[in-house]
Amino acid sequence: MSEGHAHTLAAMSYTQVEALLALDARSIALIPSGSTEAHGPHLPLATDSIISEGMAEAAAKALAARGYEAVVFPCLHYAVTDWAAAFHGSTGLTVPTASAMLLETCLAAQRTGFDAVVLCNAHLEPDNIATLRAVTKQYEERTGQPLLFPDVTRRRVAQTLTEEFQSGSCHAGQYETSIVMALRPDWVQGEVAAQLPEHHVPLHERIAAGAKDFLECGLDQAYCGAPAKATAKEGHETLATLARVTADLVDAHFAG
């Protein structure tokens, strides 16, 4: 298999996109979906966007190594973020607005001529995940093709990730802090993270019991998990796993 390439859509001209789509190699559009919301006192509001972009970029390199022409689209920085609404800076969209933005972006990539469209997401709020899953169905109804979504909340994917992630107590904890340390260490307040006590919150149980936001779940500082245990090494390892899961999903799609 010949080597492919990883590209950044925002840095390309329209003629470069046109030339790429004219190649014999299969072309993949990777669309990162993030959020702007509180992630503890130590991580930036763009944490989910940083992770989604990092996932897409790592996946693009993995896909290029498998012979694809992979293009990372600009990140969608706003999503359904009702759970963090009580914390300053959190900026959310309604479900209809978020859904329309996601769907239209993915449809635009498909109309442009990409052979497959992949949705990369790191924002795990229940209503946001439900929105993304609904978008995948709407996309297939509109195009007759699947919207590839490596949903990390699905058990088969989650079990490949870290122990903290699988516990569900991972909002701005060791899992997310490690990835941001790997990608944007200058945006992590390391001294603050090092002083934060481990704060285990069984989010799945709290949600099932009827909690509606972070405060009702007991995340009084918008974090749970163990941010003080985070390392850039773990972050790089997690990104490699996310890239492999995404590339495998693309391979499986074309294998039928």
Detailed description of the structure:
With 256 residues, this protein is of the alpha/beta class. It has a single domain (5-255), classed as Creatininase (Rossmann fold, 3-Layer(aba) Sandwich), CATH 3.40.50.10310. Helices cover 48% and strands 8% of the residues. The protein has 11 helices and 4 strands, in the order E-H-E-H-E-H-E-H-H-H-H-H-H-H-H. The chain has helices at residues 14-21, 47-65, 95-112, 126-143, 155-158, 163-167, 174-183, 190-195, 203-208, 214-217, 232-255; strands spanning 5-8, 27-33, 69-72, 116-121. The protein has a 4-stranded parallel sheet, sandwiched between helices. Helix 2 (47-65) packs across helix 11 (232-255), helix 3 packs parallel to helix 4 (126-143) and helix 7 (174-183) packs across helix 11. The model has no long low-confidence stretch (mean pLDDT 97).
The level 1 CATH classification is Alpha Beta
Proportion in β-strands: 5-15%
> Mind telling me the C-alpha Rg?
18 Å
Outline the low-pLDDT stretches. none
Shape: globular
Compute the separation of the termini in Å: 18 Å
How many domains would you count in the coordinates?
1
Q: Helix-strand pattern, N to C?
A: EHEHEHEHHHHHHHH
Strand order within the widest sheet? 1-3-2-4
Q: Write the CATH homologous superfamily.
A: Creatininase
Residue-averaged pLDDT, rounded? 97
Helix content class: 40-55%
The CATH architecture term is 3-Layer(aba) Sandwich
Characterize the main sheet.
4 strands, parallel
Secondary-structure-based class equals: alpha/beta
Instruction: Give me the number of helical elements.
Output: 11
The CATH topology turns out to be Rossmann fold
DSSP summary, beta strand count: 4
Quaternary status? single chain
